Amino acid sequence: MSRHLARETAFKTLFQLDFNNNEVEPTLSSLLEESGLNGEHAAFARSLVDGTIKNRESIDMLLTPYLVNWELSRLAVVDRNVLRLATYEILYREDVPNVVAINEALEISKIFHSEEAAKFLNGVLDKLARDHGSGNGVK
Hints:
Structural class: mainly alpha
Distance between the termini: 28 Å
Strand content: under 5%
Number of strands: 0
Shape: globular
C-alpha cells in the first residue's frame, strides 16, 4: 500500500506542476508530509517525480503516436500525468513490472478521473508496454 501511496503522491506532484506550474521541491515536500510517507517510500515517490520530469520530453515524444486522434496537450491534466508517470515506470524502472505500472496507473486514474478514462489509458499503456517495455525495464 505504501508504494501505491508513493505513486499517488508522485502523481499529485506532477499534476500540480503541470496544472499550476508549481515548483517541484516545495510541492513534493508538502505532499510527502501530507501523505505521511517517509523513508524508502518517500524516496520512491521522489525518484518517480524526478525521473518523470527528467525524461518528460522523451516520454511525451514516445507517447504521441499512441494517442490516436488525440494530442497530449489536449488530454485532461489527470490523464496526461498518469500516462507520463506510468510510461516512466515502464521504460526506466527495472524494479517495476510493466503490469504493476499499468495497474497502478489505472487505479490512480479511477480515483482522480473516471472508469472511462482508465479504459482509454489502459489501451495506450498496454500498446506502449508491448512495443517498448521488456516486462521489467527498458527494451
